[in-house]
Write a structure and sequence with these properties.
The protein is an all-alpha fold. Helices cover about 70% and strands about 0% of the residues. Helix 1 (about 1-10) runs antiparallel to helix 2 (about 10-35) and helix 2 packs across helix 3.
Length: about 120
């Protein structure tokens, strides 16, 4: 989808910077989140084994963010849709991202709710 939108936009270098900025921001924020909430999971320790799993989860979350960016770009027929947020777009992001997050966290947790 990156290349699809790259062929559509006029400012290709601006587009690439936009996508890279979103990817890096998502990676940094998701890495922090994964490391901070790790203690909610039974048996979590700040060892390389657990930290590396958090990094993998953060990369997965970043890719999910990019999939949502491109998916909504197709839906709105504009890759820069996120630059003009309104309440309906925010609610749609929360609904789709939140549902996916809850389902994935539930799937990968190690307890009835994954929280000790």
């Amino acid at each position: 989808m990156y290349f699809y939108f790259r062929n559509v936009v006029d400012n290709k270098s601006g587009y690439t910077s936009f996508v890279v900025d979103i990817a890096l921001t998502a990676l940094v924020l998701n890495t922090a989140w994964e490391l901070l909430h790790g203690l909610l999971y039974g048996g979590y320790q700040y060892t390389w084994d657990h930290i590396s799993m958090c990094l993998i989860a953060a990369v997965t979350d970043m890719l999910t963010t990019l999939i949502m960016l491109f998916g909504f770009g197709l839906f709105y027929k504009n890759i820069f849709w996120s630059l003009k947020l309104n309440l309906s777009k925010i609610l749609l992001i929360i609904l789709t991202g939140g549902t996916g997050t809850v389902l994935l966290e539930r799937r990968h947790s190690n307890g009835p709710l994954g929280i000790r």
